[in-house]
Amino acid sequence: MDKRLKGMVIEYSDDIVKMWLEEVNSKKSSEYTSSISDELFENTNREFVNVIFSSIEKDGISLELEDFSERLINLGWPLSYLTDGMQVFRRVITEFILQRSDQVDSKYFGEVLRQVDNWVDPVINKLVNEFSGSWENIVSLQRVALQELSAPLIPVMENITIMPLIGTIDTERAKLIMENLLDGVIKHNAEVVLIDITGVPVVDTMVAHHIIQAAEAVRLIGSRCILVGIRPEIAQTIVNLGIDLGKFPTKSSLRKGFQTALELTNRTIEQTQDKEKDIEKLIDSLDGE
What we know:
The chain is α/β, with parallel strands linked by helices. The chain has helices at residues 2-11, 13-25, 38-57, 63-75, 79-99, 106-150, 171-188, 205-220, 232-241, 254-264, 275-288; strands spanning 154-157, 160-166, 192-199, 224-228, 250-251. It has a five-stranded mixed beta sheet with strand order 1-2-3-4-5, with helices on both faces. The protein starts with a helix and ends with a helix.
């Protein structure tokens, strides 16, 4: 029966393709295809159905299917386009076979359904796996990128680095902060590290505990931490929670913390003469000549 049904399907593939295209094109108004041009939608549909028949004819997944699914993934087509198309194909091809059968009983009907499932299900599984693998890869890359950005250590001057923290700090991120902080201190030969929590919305007991641990770890390798960005509400929360931050300096702003860091590294800020005055003196000297 398998060969006979497959022969019928291949022989009347043009009719089946026409039926399938009519039904799929009627779904053009759906959200994920409404912005696609008619020409592109038509060409993609024809390529899609040709790929399906290629898989049926070759008794399995074809290279054309892999190339087609990879191209759609790169172009940003949704998985729902493919799964909806396969379900339409399942329905169309089942109806086509039954309409051309002389006698249809429950046994024959069940055999047709099983055969169609054997053609369609492997294709659907392949498409889903291709998209899932792509999504997992994208999520993995995004996670790595976010981790790299979540706790950066920025050298601003010789022996002085800054770690700006933004967003919520959980246990996993706190571990990353600790690792980046210690590695960065060694890498940049930092004597002073400014931990800027201006962008941290909430400082609770856990966050404060992680910050204290990080500062203590930095102290053990011969450097010092300055906690900056202490807003009034954060200061009040720290006091109410009874958190002791007396082991390392704290400043309300990054500017004040940087001034302290300069003092700790035996440097000072000196005011230079106003540039406009220098220009005026230069002009006066030229006039005098």
